[in-house]
Design a protein that fits this description.
With 136 residues, this protein is of the alpha+beta class. The chain is built from three helices and eight strands; from the N terminus they run E-H-H-E-E-E-E-E-E-E-H. It starts with a strand and ends in a 9-residue tail after the last helix. The model has no long low-confidence stretch (mean pLDDT 79).
Length: 136
């Protein structure tokens, strides 16, 4: 299991935005008061742009989105993202796959089991995300 998108984004954004805020405080303190609104507007614009860039870059680390299963799971080329707990399970940590009447169950190294509907299997076969899916 890896840190999820929200937590990674929170860590990165906190570090970047705090450094920008500190730079803005020093910029406002050591410049004439007429430049303070310009510095604040520049900081706001850079925060908005950096937020979008960070979000796009984080999503790309897992590959393209293959399938969204309800509002809970998103399957990427790199693994399964579980939205409620903000956790990402890469395919490299997959221990076993079992089929039953409920659907297809993925068991990961840390003991987590994720059961998805059986129609997910066809999408994963076409994607080639899990190698040798037919052998499970």
């Amino acid at each position: 299991m890896e840190l999820g998108l929200r937590f990674r984004g929170l860590i990165m954004k906190t570090v970047i935005f705090l450094s920008l805020a500190i730079a803005a405080v020093f910029g406002i303190r050591f410049t004439p008061p007429t430049f303070a609104p310009i510095i604040i507007i520049a900081l706001l614009i850079s925060v908005i742009i950096l937020n979008r860039v960070i979000n796009k870059r984080l999503v790309r680390t897992w590959g393209r989105e293959v399938l969204s299963v309800g509002t809970t799971y998103v399957i990427y080329e790199g693994g399964i993202y579980v939205r409620p707990v903000d956790a990402f399970y890469p395919w490299s940590e997959l221990r076993s796959v079992t089929r039953d009447l409920q659907g297809i169950t993925f068991s990961f190294i840390d003991g987590t089991e994720i059961t998805l509907p059986s129609n997910v299997e066809t999408a994963l076969r076409n994607c080639g995300c899990i190698h040798n899916l037919g052998n499970y």
